[in-house]
Design brief:
Helices cover 34% and strands 15% of the residues. It is of the alpha/beta class. Strands 1-2-4-3-5-6-7-8 form an eight-stranded mixed β-sheet. A hairpin with a 2-residue loop joins strand 1 (8-12) and strand 2. The protein is globular and about 50 Å long. The two termini are 35 Å apart.
Length: 323
């Protein structure tokens, strides 16, 4: 059974975010993705605190113990980035370093872009920054996938994916952890595009009988309980704003992230296959991209699959950037 820490409930940008705040020193904000919450960072929090930092780890809006507004529009990138800056405000901090994984990575990149005078340094895990798309539908309806299953398109109709994925939260989480990890065969996640668009997601991906070595029963039970509290609606609403985010941020056309930046990912992460030449594209979107590093033997959940290596990379980033 997981013993919960003493959380703070921070008022930021019109919502209340359940946040683990720990340590003393320069502020580092850790951002989770989908479908996760603060506990994703359980292996990294104490080492960062021991290195001399104050760490804030929120359940982002719509997740676990945080507030989940009803309107889909309440989950656009402007709201999500403002939430991050608001965490620093609530803690009395003028500036901060932001580190994010998966959707949290997307928010970290955009917080650096939208709040350049407040973000000292930025680190992304798992999702490269490809720059602003030429078309708002690029990710929702990728070229060549007409009639084929694509999870972002599947997530768009409110209520439909919620009903399917929340019918068995444990199975959904086990499916997500396995499919996107290095435990599954290469290309497992992207194999979804071989199925017709009407195929239910739970018929595409396997739910493994055994837990992976990097996920114990207590942790899984805790995650299941958290998502039974608040469901997946809030997190799915992030996906429903992808096209809207493009329309809301015309000022980011050609913008470069100017803060010191690092990027790490699992070498076996299928997400890197979304844009096969990402490694050539990415540096042009930064003024100070200091490191790109892939962790062997890890997939999308690198902080869980390879916790020591991921923590070491984060501490290196903090040391290199003087953050």
């Amino acid at each position: 059974m997981i013993a919960e820490p003493a959380f703070r409930y921070l008022q930021t940008n019109g919502v209340t975010l359940r946040t683990l705040v720990k340590g003393e020193g320069p502020l580092v904000i850790l951002l989770h993705g989908f479908p996760e919450f603060w506990h994703l960072w359980r292996h990294q929090i104490d080492p960062i605190v021991a290195a001399g930092y104050r760490v804030a780890v929120p359940d982002q809006r719509g997740y676990a113990g945080s507030e989940a507004p009803a309107a889909v529009e309440a989950y656009d990138i402007l709201h999500l980035a403002a939430d991050v800056a608001g965490i620093a405000d609530a803690l009395g901090e003028d500036d901060f370093t932001v580190i994010g994984q998966d959707w949290g990575c997307i928010i970290a990149w955009h917080t650096a872009l939208l709040y350049p005078d407040r973000v000292r340094a930025v680190m992304g895990l798992s999702v490269p920054y490809w720059g602003r798309a030429e078309c708002p539908d690029t990710l929702v309806d990728p070229p060549g996938l007409d009639g084929k299953f694509w999870y972002i398109r599947y997530f768009q109709p409110p209520g439909v994916p919620e009903a399917a994925l929340e019918a068995d939260i444990e199975a959904t989480l086990r499916m997500a952890y396995y499919t996107l990890s290095a435990d599954s065969p290469p290309g497992t996640w992207l194999s979804q595009t071989e199925f017709p668009s009407a195929t239910p997601m739970n018929r595409i991906f396997q739910v493994p009988a055994e837990l992976p070595s990097w996920l114990n029963r207590d942790d899984l039970d805790y995650h299941v309980a958290q998502f039974r509290n608040n469901g997946l609606r809030g997190g799915l609403n992030w996906y429903r704003n992808i096209a809207r985010n493009w329309h809301l941020t015309p000022q980011l056309a050609g913008a470069r992230i100017r803060q010191p930046a690092h990027f790490i990912a699992g070498a076996e992460d299928d997400v890197l296959g979304y844009v096969p030449n990402w490694r050539e594209i990415m540096p042009g979107n930064f003024e100070d991209l200091r490191r790109i590093h892939l962790i062997p033997g890890a997939g999308h959940w690198l902080m869980l699959e390879k916790p020591a290596e991921t923590t070491a990379a984060i501490l290196r980033f903090l040391g290199d950037t003087g953050a």
